[in-house]
TrEMBL record:
TM region positions: 20-40, 52-68, 74-95, 107-128, 134-157
Keyword Phosphoprotein: yes
Top-level class of the enzyme under EC nomenclature: transferase
Highest classification ranks of the organism: Bacteria, Bacillati, Actinomycetota, Actinomycetes, Kitasatosporales
Protein's name according to its UniProt entry: histidine kinase
Length: 386
């Protein structure tokens, strides 16, 4: 079934494809017929007397009209010359139409001034006499507003079409951007879930096996099993780090973070109690201010969980401090640890936890700093707007 003929399809057919020339020629012939009939019906006296010159000029201009889009100024000047030679007002209409399409005021003024000037200098050459009385150039001049109006209408239609295409392009780009952003968010959410879920649990499992293996009353066979568990945990963390790195390698630099399934700031005390059960020495001073938004509260919990998990991995046996309090128009969380014992074991990390946390903090309008302290310790500080 053939596709329906639309304005866009007709425009493409007139400008592109092997049949464009044939279609433009057909339109030119159809446009020439009524114009030629008008030239025959209305006698004229231009600089060259006779209808033959007028018919030839009108035919040439009509045939060139569909083809002159890229040379409108030249076409307007040629049409003006045809008007001056033949006296056919239709030629001036072609010229005014083309000049209006160019949006050049100087060319339009030229087409107005030159005929008027020549009419003053040579009035008999630019007078059209009708069959029923005087139909002079001055009276028919009013009719020349029609090609100007048509030219303006065509310009407005073209601009409207370009605006529509521009809007459709912008909407398509926006849809693509939203889809790409959504895919990035989903991938980021998956990375966060794997890191916070699997990574933390593997770390705690390894820490428990280390704690059991360090006891003096544990048989050697059990200690050997604990060593195997620790080695498997270390391998699992390295594999997890590789997987997360592959998942993130094609992501863009800036994007928003999806909130994951997390606790709230009010649950940080319970989180501290859980890590104490794994043998960490933690001093906590948690004062949750009123009026925290759910997103800020969840982000504070996530920051505390990430920091405590890192102390288990890298600072076993070190004293840990957790502080949460309001400060002016912000809420500040600080999690730090002293230097770990010299021979304390350390688990490999994924390297993604703090990166993800920093992006989430920036997206929430906050600030984060993390780094070593004097004496070999480490401090993470998160400040979020209340």
């Amino acid at each position: 079934m053939p596709a329906p003929l639309t304005y866009d399809a007709l425009a493409r057919a007139l400008t592109d494809g092997p049949r464009a020339v044939q279609l433009r020629t057909l339109l030119a012939v159809l446009a020439t017929l009524p114009l030629a009939w008008g030239a025959i019906a209305s006698p004229s006296t231009g600089l060259v007397d006779g209808r033959a010159a007028g018919l030839i000029a009108i035919g040439v201009l009509a045939a060139a009209t569909p083809l002159c889009e890229r040379a409108l100024p030249l076409y307007a000047l040629v049409a003006l010359g045809a008007f001056l030679v033949t006296g056919q007002t239709i030629c001036l209409a072609y010229a005014l139409f083309a000049a209006t399409r160019t949006r050049r005021l100087d060319l339009i003024l030229l087409l107005v001034v030159v005929p008027l000037t020549l009419a003053l200098v040579h009035p008999q050459a630019l007078v059209v006499q009708g069959a029923k009385g005087a139909l002079t150039f001055s009276t028919t001049w009013v009719l020349l507003g029609f090609p100007i109006a048509v030219g303006v209408a065509v310009n407005v239609a073209n601009e409207a079409g370009l605006l529509r295409i521009s809007r459709e392009t912008e909407r398509a780009a926006l849809r693509e951007s939203l889809l790409r952003e959504r895919r990035m968010q989903q991938r980021e959410h998956l990375v966060q879930t794997i890191h916070d879920g699997v990574g933390h649990q593997v770390s705690l499992m390894s820490v428990q096996s280390m704690a059991i293996g360090a006891r003096k009353d544990v048989p050697d066979e059990v200690k050997a099993k604990c060593d195997l568990i620790q080695a498997a945990g270390s391998d699992a963390m390295q594999s997890l780090s590789s997987v997360l790195r592959i998942m993130r390698q094609n992501e863009e630099e800036h994007h928003h973070d999806l909130p994951g399934e997390s606790g709230s700031a009010a649950e940080i005390d319970s989180l501290v109690a859980t890590y104490r059960q794994y043998g960490q020495s933690i001093a906590a001073d948690v004062r949750v201010p009123d009026g925290l938004s759910p997103d800020v509260s969840a982000l504070l919990y996530r920051a505390a969980e990430e920091s405590l998990s890192n102390t288990v991995r890298h600072a076993q046996g070190a004293r840990v401090t957790v502080r949460l309090a309001a400060a002016d128009d912000a809420v500040v969380l600080e999690v730090g640890n002293a230097a770990p014992p010299a021979h304390a074991p350390s688990l490999p990390g994924t390297g993604h936890g703090q990166q993800q946390l920093a992006k989430a903090v920036r997206s929430a309008g906050g600030a984060m700093s993390a780094g070593p302290t004097e004496g070999g310790g480490y401090l993470l500080r998160v400040s979020l707007p209340r």
